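Lecture 7 notes: from sequence to structure.
We start with the chain below.
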Amino acid sequence: AQLLKSSLEGIEEFGKNLQGGELRVSFPGTELGRQLAQVARVIKARALIGAERDGFFCQLGGFDSHGDFFNTINRKFTMINDALEAFATEMKFPDESGQSAWGSITIIQASEFGRTMVSNGRGTDHGWGGMHWLAGGQVNGGRMFGRFPESLLPNSDLMLSRGRIVPTTSWEALWYGVAQWMGVDEEHMEGVLPNKHNFAPGQLFTDDDLYAPPSPPPAPAAPPPPLPPAVPMPPALP
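Predicted structure tokens for the same chain:
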């Protein structure tokens, strides 16, 4: 009974603190837009909640595009773009301290499997290898990691039946650098990535690979120019 009481009190307190996460941006009313709006409220109220590091999970289904591929993908990509644009804009607004949260955020896109490169007539079927992306204020973007297939022809060494690509980079590769960025030291990394010991050096991406280096401190202000020489005093009158 005491545990239930404390849980209900915690939920009530969390709800009160969440009211401090007022949003400035109008989020789309889509499935993903509503989820990211709630995430934004929690982040905006992080000082009241007392959060240091948080992880949020949003999901969007409907990508099983065995049929009507183009309409499905265009509709889903538009939904993702609109929701992420609203979220990033909201996170770039400065808070009461004058700092925005965007520099402390990493967004990771994930899917449980890729799709075939060859159409089934109306869409695509279940594949194997795929792609993931990262975004955030400190992410050093505009680059690709992993081994991209040199050929997409059926006889390629990375191509299986009907355009199923063999993955060359582990899903865990990016999580190593993200964990470092979040402050996990090497001593505790095995608890986060228990398969880490199975990878050779260079197969896991570090935080230096994924994130831009911190901005250097501003240069000190230039010293003021020297004062002009003092005008000599006239000699005293006799």
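Points to note: The chain has seven helices and two strands. The mean pLDDT is 84.
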